[in-house]
Amino acid sequence: MNTEEITRVRKLSQAYAYTSIQMHETIGREAGLSGTDHKYLGFLLQKGQMTAGELSNLTGLTTGAVTGLIDRFEKKKLVKRRFAEDDRRKVLIEPNTKNIMALLEPLYKEFRRQSEELIASFSSKELKVIETYFSKAIEIMTETTNKLNNK
């Protein structure tokens, strides 16, 4: 691959990332959340219940910022705080998947349909290339994030 091709694909990747941020900010706003709050809800949906400390480590937010985040989610009935059964000093943040999905699903419905239609338009071989790119790009981003967080 020549330098021109690498630059073209890198710029497309950047444009994808920036457009994703814009879309998620807009969806968050439509849901009554900030774009980042909306994405942090995604962590809770994906990973399930966790402590505030675990959410802080995952997001890179301070524990104080996570407390504010949880307060905002709780006010909207998107999460619930509950004590861990094995240690009542430990507070778990439990996502209310039903409420979260009721809030976000209508906002993603058309995007999801079009995305799935786009994915279905590629051959199995092409999908493997796309999958490889995303998997390796995620590894690189995770590595970069971890390095910067552990300075």
Automatic annotation (TrEMBL):
<keyword id="KW-0238">DNA-binding</keyword>
<keyword id="KW-0804">Transcription</keyword>
<dbReference type="InterPro" id="IPR036388">
    <property type="entry name" value="WH-like_DNA-bd_sf"/>
</dbReference>
<dbReference type="GO" id="GO:0003677">
    <property type="term" value="F:DNA binding"/>
</dbReference>
<dbReference type="InterPro" id="IPR036390">
    <property type="entry name" value="WH_DNA-bd_sf"/>
</dbReference>
<dbReference type="Pfam" id="PF12802">
    <property type="entry name" value="MarR_2"/>
</dbReference>
<feature type="domain" description="HTH marR-type">
    <location>
        <begin position="2"/>
        <end position="139"/>
    </location>
</feature>
<keyword id="KW-0805">Transcription regulation</keyword>
<dbReference type="GO" id="GO:0003700">
    <property type="term" value="F:DNA-binding transcription factor activity"/>
</dbReference>
<dbReference type="InterPro" id="IPR000835">
    <property type="entry name" value="HTH_MarR-typ"/>
</dbReference>
<protein>
    <submittedName>
        <fullName>DNA-binding MarR family transcriptional regulator</fullName>
    </submittedName>
</protein>
